[in-house]
Design a protein that fits this description.
It is built from ten helices and no strands. By secondary structure, it is mainly alpha-helical. Helix 2 crosses helix 3. InterPro entries: Memb_transporter_dom.
């Protein structure tokens, strides 16, 4: 539903894209908790706390620098009715459904594998699919390859920092460091960005506890499976019906 509704506008595509990723992460964390509702409440409180801190520090830095908030340039935007009509026209064409079908198909296979082998940590397949699957299929899976390699490197890094012999404060400090590096790395080196975000997610999954060799191997295998699912779905779609370049903001990459 989120993938389908996201085609309404670019802001909604960005928001729903992030929502899909966070939902996959939340489901994985919920499996490790005896009280999923409490986990959801804590994540909502964390999101609200982060937003409040961002507003507070932004205001503080602008005050110290002596400059007002940057004005957003006025750009012509379509009305809500125009966006709805454009979205409705898009849904009457196969191109309007291709992202939803690819994502749903890959997640269905991920759920099947997770159900078939419940003793393995194959919930990571869904997280990998949610991260790698983009609104526009990539004929040359360079970005998918970068994300997959970065995720694999991140799994290895998480294995090094989650050793039981390391002090307990290290995971908390590493979470803070990786969380701060993420926005800076994203626009400079996508491979490094993905490699840094993967151990961050794994540390959040494990609650800072040592993950052990078995779960890390499972997640490394799940990363490869998730990447293969996305690349395969893109290849099948492009072979069956090549998708034309996007002609509106809503159909661009979700980021």
């Amino acid at each position: 539903m989120a993938a389908l509704v996201g085609g309404y506008s670019r802001p909604l595509a960005l928001g729903t894209g992030r929502g899909i990723v966070f939902l996959a992460i939340l489901l994985g964390i919920g499996d490790l908790s005896r009280d999923p509702a409490r986990v959801l409440a804590l994540m909502a409180a964390g999101a609200l706390w982060t937003a409040c801190l961002a507003l507070a520090f932004g205001s503080l830095f602008r005050a110290l620098a002596g400059r007002p908030a940057a004005a957003t340039p006025a750009t012509p935007t379509a009305s809500a009715l125009q966006k709805f009509r454009r979205w409705r026209r898009m849904l009457r064409q196969p191109e309007g459904w291709q992202y939803t079908l690819r994502l749903t198909g890959c997640l269905a296979v991920a759920a099947l594998l997770r159900t078939t082998w419940p003793d393995h940590h194959f919930g990571w397949i869904a997280v990998t699919v949610a991260i790698l699957c983009q609104r526009q299929p990539e004929a040359l899976p360079l970005r998918v390859t970068q994300r997959a390699v970065g995720a694999a490197l991140g799994v290895g890094l998480a294995g090094l920092v989650a050793l039981p012999t390391l002090p307990g404060w290290l995971p908390a400090g590493l979470i803070a460091l990786l969380g701060g590096l993420g926005p800076w790395l994203r626009g400079r080196n996508y491979l490094a960005y993905t490699a840094s975000m993967t151990p961050l997610i794994i540390l959040l999954f494990s609650g800072g506890r040592p993950a052990g060799t078995g779960p890390l191997v499972d997640r490394l295998l799940a990363t490869a499976i998730g990447a293969a699912l996305v690349v395969g779905a893109n290849a099948l779609l492009l072979r069956a019906a090549p998708v034309p370049p996007p002609n509106n903001l809503a159909s661009r990459r979700q980021g």
